[in-house]
Amino acid sequence: MEQRLGLSEGWHITPAGGATGEAYIAENHEQKLFLKRNSSPFLAVLSAEGIVPKLIWTRRMENGDVITAQQWLEGRELKASDMKHPSVANLLSKIHGSKELLDLLKRIEKNPLEPEGVLTEIDEQVIAQVSHPVLDKARVYLERNLERIRFHQKVVCHGDVNHNNWLLSAEKQLYLIDWDGAMVADPALDIGQLLYWYIPKNEWQDWLDQYGIKLSSNLEERMRWYVIAQTILSINWHRRRDERKEMENWIKYLQEIF
Fold it and tell me: In this structure, are residues 40 and 46 in contact, taking their beta carbons and an 8 Å threshold?
């Protein structure tokens, strides 16, 4: 295992969990590292910007895999109640405003995500596989509002701002980790997910004040559109993994949105 991950003898390797099974914790007597196979190709820029823990090294293996090693930080994941903290809004605003991240993601041929692409993915992967009245209703809503939510000022979006992906170090430094699903998209994709899941609606503007924008009717429409679309894709993700309870919870959540 050590050689497969680009390490010499004397390291103790344990799985770090996660959906992909490609992450590991490596320890020896002097150092502790977080290793990942084929991580995000712009991890170095994320590290330089202080968005993720420090990148220590990157190694390309003989089989073509790329192994990255990051500084291991003692800390904790954020709780749902922590998502109201101004530091969350500030970091997400920094990410969305980063020209360096945007330029790099465009250079590695990340085409901007457009609403039509989202709708096509839903048609091909979900609507054709899952039959439920609320999905049909949601599909009609998404198509009907396609033009209303079009937004041209694309940014780098994380794509999964779940509280489990936010790491608060022992030194109180906040990071957003797990960038495998990064995309160039409407910032409403990230903002809507975060506000809908964690912030009471009467506090949305307070949170957005920290982020640096005003709550407009257009932003509300865009957030709602992407939250509905992401919820449908979450339903399908759990369906493919045969996780019936989680799938039903997301269907219930979609019904609540409507």
Answer: yes
Active site residues: 160
Q: Provide the pairing of β-strand 55-60 with 66-71.
A: antiparallel
Domain check: are 81 and 164 in the same one? Answer: yes
Both structure tokens of 120: 């096509």
Coil, strand or helix: which one is 89? helix
Decide: residue 151, CB within 10 A, 0-12 exposed, 13-18 middle, 19+ buried. Answer: middle
Q: Give 28-71 pLDDT, tens digit per residue.
A: 877 888 888 877 778 889 999 999 999 998 888 777 788 888 88
Helix (H) or strand (E) holding 256: helix 244-257
Residue 112 and residue 176 in one domain: yes
User: What does pTM read for this prediction?
Assistant: 0.89
Model pLDDT, residue 221: 97
What is the largest distance, in Å, between two alpha-carbon atoms of the chain? 60
Number of domains in the chain: 2
